[in-house]
Specification:
Elements (H helix, E strand, L loop, with lengths): L6 H21 L10 H25 L12 H9 L15 H8 L1 H9 L7 H19 L4 H16 L5 H20 L14 H15 L18 H16 L8 H11 L7 H12 L5
Helix pairs in contact: 1-2, 1-3, 4-5, 4-8, 6-7, 6-8, 7-8, 9-10, 9-12, 10-11
C-alpha cells in the first residue's frame, strides 16, 4: 500500500505512542500506589519500550524520522529517563541527516549500519524497503523543483524496486544502484546532453528541460522547442536563457508569497510565451520552486 495512503494511520500511531510514554513517565514513580502489581511494574517498561522501538522503526522505514520531530521533541528525554533506552549516537550532524543524505556522505553500508539498522536485526528485504521508501520520499518532496528530472529519477526507482535481491550478489548490486541513485538525487544531475551554454546555470537548465511540458500545458506547440534545429539554432535553448535572464532582471525582491510582486513575475514571462496564459502559469509554478530566483 502506498505511503501516502497510510500516512494518517502512521501519524496517529506516533502520537499514541507519545501519549503512552508521557503517561508512563507521569506515573512511573508511583505505580505501586496506583494499584499495579509487582509483575506489572516490572513488565510496563518493556511494553513501553517495545512500542517506542516499533514507532522508531516505522518512522525510519517510511522516511519520516525528521518530519515528525516537531510533534514529540521531548520523546528521547522521556525514554532515556524512564525507560533507559539507549540514546541515539550522533556523529557530527548524523542525527539531523536523512538516510539519502547519509548514503551520499558515508556510503550506503555505513548509512545502513548507523541509521537504518543500528540494532543489526533487520532482514535484507526490510533494509531494502527502508531505502526505497526514503528515496521515494525525497523524490516526492523535491519533484516540483524539476518535474522532468524527478520523473526520470522515479523511473530509476521503479527499476530498482523490480531488481532481484534474493542472493548476496543481487543484494549487493541493489545497494550499489541505490547508492548511485541517492547520489544523483543529491547532485540533482541534469541530462548529460544539456547544451554547453547551460553548464553551471542550474535554473536555466531546469527551465530548458521542462519547456516542452510547459508549452504543452498551453496552446503553444511543444514541438517547436522539442529538438534543436541547426538551420535556426536551438530555439528551446534561446527561450530558456531569455526566460532566465528576464526573471533575474525583473523579479522584485521578496516576490514569493506577495500577490502583486508575483504578478510582476508572471507579466514579465507572459510575452515570452506568446501571451499564453496556461503556459505562463505552468512556467511560474516551476520558477517559484527554484531557490536561485
Amino acid at each position: 500500500m502506498p505511503l501516502n495512503e497510510t500516512e494518517a494511520l502512521r501519524v496517529s500511531f506516533y502520537r499514541a505512542v507519545a501519549v503512552l510514554v508521557r503517561a508512563y513517565a507521569a506515573i512511573a514513580q508511583d505505580l505501586t500506589e496506583a494499584g499495579y502489581t509487582e509483575e506489572e511494574v516490572d513488565a510496563l517498561p518493556q511494553g513501553v519500550e517495545f512500542y517506542a522501538e516499533i514507532r522508531s522503526a516505522i518512522k525510519k522505514h517510511s522516511g519520516e524520522e525528521l518530519d515528525i520531530k516537531p510533534y514529540e521533541a521531548d520523546m528521547r528525554h522521556l525514554l532515556n529517563t524512564y525507560i533507559q533506552a539507549d540514546p541515539a549516537a550522533d556523529l557530527g550532524e548524523l542525527g539531523e541527516m536523512s538516510l539519502t543524505e547519509l548514503i551520499v556522505d558515508t556510503g550506503i553500508h555505513d548509512a545502513i549500519a548507523r541509521k537504518l539498522n543500528k540494532t543489526g536485526k533487520l532482514s535484507k528485504n526490510a533494509i531494502a524497503e527502508g531505502i526505497i521508501n526514503n528515496v521515494r520520499k525525497t523524490i516526492i518532496r523535491e519533484q516540483l523543483t524539476d518535474p522532468r528530472f524527478y520523473e526520470q529519477m522515479s523511473k530509476l526507482l521503479d527499476d530498482l524496486i523490480k531488481q532481484n535481491r534474493a542472493d548476496a550478489a543481487a543484494y549487493e548490486e541493489f545497494l550499489r544502484k541505490a547508492e548511485e541513485l541517492a547520489k544523483r538525487l543529491a547532485a540533482k544531475q541534469p541530462d548529460q546532453d544539456a547544451p554547453a551554454a547551460l553548464h553551471g546555470r542550474r535554473e536555466a537548465t531546469v527551465i530548458y528541460n521542462n519547456l516542452p511540458r510547459i508549452l504543452a500545458a498551453g496552446r503553444a506547440s511543444a514541438a517547436q522547442v522539442a529538438e534543436p534545429r541547426a538551420e535556426y539554432g536551438d530555439e528551446r535553448l534561446r527561450l530558456a536563457l531569455e526566460i532566465d535572464g528576464v526573471i533575474r532582471e525583473r523579479a522584485p525582491a521578496g516576490w514569493r508569497g506577495d500577490q502583486a510582486r508575483e504578478a510582476q513575475v508572471k507579466n514579465a514571462m507572459f510575452p515570452l510565451l506568446n501571451r499564453d496564459r496556461d503556459a505562463t502559469l505552468a512556467l511560474f509554478e516551476l520558477v517559484k520552486s527554484q531557490p536561485g530566483y
